[in-house]
Amino acid sequence: MKDLNARLNPGILDIKPYQPGKTVAEARADDPSLEYIKLASNENPFGLSPRARQAVLDSLEEAYAYPEVSCAVVRHALSRKLGIGPDHFIIGNGGDGIIYACAMAMLAEGDEAIIPEITFPYYEIAVRAMRGRVVRSRMTGEAIDLDDILKKLSSRTKMIWLCNPNNPTGSLTEARAFTEFFKAVPEDVFVIHDEVYADFAPREAFPDTLALIRAGADNLVLIRSFSKIYGMAGLRVGYGVGQARLVNMLYRVRPPFDISVVAQAAAAAAVADDAFYAKTLALTETEKTHLTEALTSRNLGVAPSATNFLLVDLGQDGGLVTEKLCARGVIVRPMNGYSLPNRIRVTIGTREQNDRFLAALDEVLA
Questions:
Q1: CB burial readout 212-231, b (16+ within 10 A) else e
Q2: What are 245-275's pLDDT values in tens digits?
Q3: Angle subtended at Cα 192 by Cα 98 and Cα 198, rounded to the nearest 5 degrees
Q4: Do domains 20-47+275-365 and 50-272 have the same CATH topology?
Q5: What is the dotted CATH code of the domain comprising 50-272?
Q6: CB-hemisphere CA count at 13 Å for 356?
Q7: In this model, does residue 313 exceed pLDDT 90?
Q8: Of 151, 171, 168, 169, nearest to 160 (Cα)?
Q9: What is the pLDDT of residues 90-115, one digit of tens each?
Q10: What integer is the mean pLDDT of 308-321?
């Protein structure tokens, strides 16, 4: 029998599988006696948008049928909300679906993709699966170094991945810096601007990337998600924004039925739920301030964050602290896999959740 590896796509052989945050179900399997809270995956602690919840219930009678492939109802809802034509949107199975579609549509074997050293790991997985070559750019503290990205450009560069605000550091690439950077990028290099956390960033500081799309930039794709601000992580809906002709190319490689009838209905309803959107932003900001002040008062390092999570420097093994917190019913995200062994990432929860995390952390660090 021939070696299995010899028969597989060589691009996947060295890929490290994506490691998601531990779920409550996984934790309960280890110790069912505890009541767990999860502050590991940057989900919305205030739940699902009420309008989306009702849309889920109303759409169940249609769940027997295949979903509409182009997700027209979602694209038109986004078009009304964001003021750009519906043909500029592609809907995917979470932001991850758009990431993979970009890599599949844009990369050929040997093409280079520039990815910051500390950022969302699925970019690298998608690039390597297409047999592309990953070129790492450096960080300046918790921030992505845009100048170093430009220095890494070569004749083989096909795409740049930029998570803004960045996961897991929470740093924001502000409008002026991004605009100057984008002008310096050659027009034949794609910039994939992952804006999954942009809803939590200060509006006045965040780049007006939609204006660039409206102005005709055809080497820019924006990635956004319903998972965070609208509380729809379990329904898996994300979207990309770009020029219509580029979006059409992404649709060629996106699986045809990967956004369910229920998910489409929920997403279209969530877009119109302005009250829930505003409530989530306000409560997140209040709780982020509370949690930041509490952690800094304990002499722990907290990176500035334009997101719904905090990157916390414990000054000791974050993986071990994560295990001890889990043993007390609190699930957070260790950062060992990001080469940040002394740090943990903590989702901004409700006041009750945040205070429970702080109490458990005090016990662990005592």
A1: bbeeebebbbbbbbbbbbbb
A2: 999 999 999 999 999 999 999 999 999 999 9
A3: 85
A4: no
A5: 3.40.640.10
A6: 19
A7: yes
A8: 151
A9: 999 999 999 999 999 999 999 999 99
A10: 98
The amino acid at residue 71 is C
Q: Where are the alpha helices (DSSP H) in the chain?
A: 24-30, 50-59, 72-82, 94-106, 122-129, 146-151, 175-184, 209-214, 244-253, 261-271, 274-296, 318-326, 351-365
Domain assignments of the chain as residue spans, ordered by start: 20-47+275-365, 50-272
Residue whose pair of structure tokens reads 């990176």 in the numeric block? 303
Q: Measure Cα distances from 93 to 232, 237, 313 in Å.
A: 11, 5, 33
8 Å CB contact between 344 and 332: yes
Residue 283 phi, psi dihedral angles, 5° rounding: -65, -40
* Distance between CA atoms of residues 54 and 268, nearest Å: 12
Q: Which CATH entry fits the domain spanning 20-47+275-365: 3.90.1150.10, 3.40.50.11240, 2.60.120.260, 3.40.50.720?
A: 3.90.1150.10
Q: Are 239 and 210 in contact (CB under 8 A)?
A: no
